C-alpha cells in the first residue's frame, strides 16, 4: 500500500512539473509573438482643456466596446483601461463635442500609432489633453504634452 501512495505522489509531482514547464514555454512563445501579449493593461486618460469654461462631451468606443457618453467639466478627467490585442490592431475612437456647435473625432488609441513597445514611446498610460485646436498626448520622454495630432477627418 505504501508503494502505491509513493507512486501516486510521484505521478502528481511529475504532472505538476510538466504543467509548470508548459506554462513557461507558452509565456516564452507568447512574448516572441508580441511583446505585450495581453499581459499589460493600458489606460487612456482624457482631460478637458478646452478653456473658456466649456464642458466636453465625449463618446468613445472600439469595434468591441461602447464606453458610452461622458461629460467632462473644465479641467476634469475620465479614464478607461483595456488590454491591447495580440494582433496589434486595437483602436478606440472618440467623438468630441463642445458648445457652439463644435463636433470632431479622434482615434484616442491606435495600436499602430501608440504601440510604444515597437516605437520607443510607450502608451501604457496614455494621458491626453483635449483643447479646441487638437488632442495632445503626454510624452514620457519630455514630460510635456507635446505629442499633438490633427483631428481625424
From TrEMBL:
<feature type="signal peptide">
    <location>
        <begin position="1"/>
        <end position="26"/>
    </location>
</feature>
<dbReference type="GO" id="GO:0005576">
    <property type="term" value="C:extracellular region"/>
</dbReference>
<dbReference type="InterPro" id="IPR010264">
    <property type="entry name" value="Self-incomp_S1"/>
</dbReference>
<protein>
    <recommendedName>
        <fullName>S-protein homolog</fullName>
    </recommendedName>
</protein>
<dbReference type="GO" id="GO:0060320">
    <property type="term" value="P:rejection of self pollen"/>
</dbReference>
<dbReference type="InterPro" id="IPR008972">
    <property type="entry name" value="Cupredoxin"/>
</dbReference>
<keyword id="KW-0732">Signal</keyword>
<comment type="similarity">
    <text>Belongs to the plant self-incompatibility (S1) protein family.</text>
</comment>
<dbReference type="Pfam" id="PF05938">
    <property type="entry name" value="Self-incomp_S1"/>
</dbReference>
<keyword id="KW-0713">Self-incompatibility</keyword>
<keyword id="KW-0964">Secreted</keyword>
Amino acid at each position: 500500500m505504501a508503494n502505491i501512495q509513493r507512486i501516486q505522489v510521484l505521478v502528481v509531482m511529475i504532472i505538476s512539473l510538466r504543467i509548470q514547464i508548459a506554462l513557461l514555454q507558452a509565456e516564452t512563445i507568447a512574448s516572441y509573438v508580441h511583446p505585450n501579449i495581453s499581459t499589460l493593461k493600458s489606460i487612456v486618460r482624457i482631460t478637458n482643456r478646452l478653456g473658456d469654461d466649456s464642458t466636453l462631451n465625449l463618446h468613445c468606443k472600439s469595434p468591441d466596446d461602447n464606453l458610452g457618453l461622458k461629460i467632462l467639466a473644465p479641467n476634469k478627467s475620465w479614464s478607461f483601461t483595456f488590454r491591447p490585442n495580440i494582433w496589434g490592431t486595437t483602436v478606440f475612437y472618440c467623438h468630441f463635442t463642445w458648445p457652439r456647435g463644435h463636433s470632431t473625432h479622434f482615434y484616442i488609441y491606435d495600436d499602430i500609432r501608440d504601440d510604444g513597445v515597437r516605437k520607443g514611446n510607450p502608451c501604457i498610460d496614455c494621458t491626453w489633453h483635449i483643447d479646441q485646436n487638437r488632442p495632445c498626448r503626454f510624452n514620457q520622454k519630455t514630460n510635456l504634452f507635446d505629442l499633438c495630432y490633427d483631428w481625424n477627418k
